[in-house]
Amino acid sequence: MAKFMDVHRGMQGITAEQLLEAHKADLAIEKDESVHFEHAWADPESGHIYCLSEAPSAEAVQRVHERAGHRADEVHPVPLQV
Amino acid sequence: MAKFMDVHRGMQGITAEQLLEAHKADLAIEKDESVHFEHAWADPESGHIYCLSEAPSAEAVQRVHERAGHRADEVHPVPLQV
Prior knowledge:
SCO4226 (chains A, B); homodimer; 5 strands
């Protein structure tokens, strides 16, 4: 298992409720891929969303996001953290 | 005070020690700007670093990073989080 940061763009105007719904959609199916989405941070002005997860691979992260209806634009392993 | 996510690019090959040193350099001066850098995550392969902070403004975040010698490529307020 490793940590991943993924980025979604083009989500200008996202609300707190929409972010929560999207996160819940991930949580509802993440176990199928042994992924856990820990946090998400959104900037409604630029439309960027950053999601931190623990997962077996970047592909597993993307499969959960895709099935939940919101494919990520980038998925990066982040093996280093402070 | 608000949350910010900033992104550094072009840091391919960064090591755990270098990330820690960079983080310590921020921590050493962050109080001057009433900023607190909470976490940083790095992908040595793509060279991306993501820093989560609490700060009065994006400009304050950038001033700390600049003085510490590592200007961010993007600084985004992230008022929404889950």
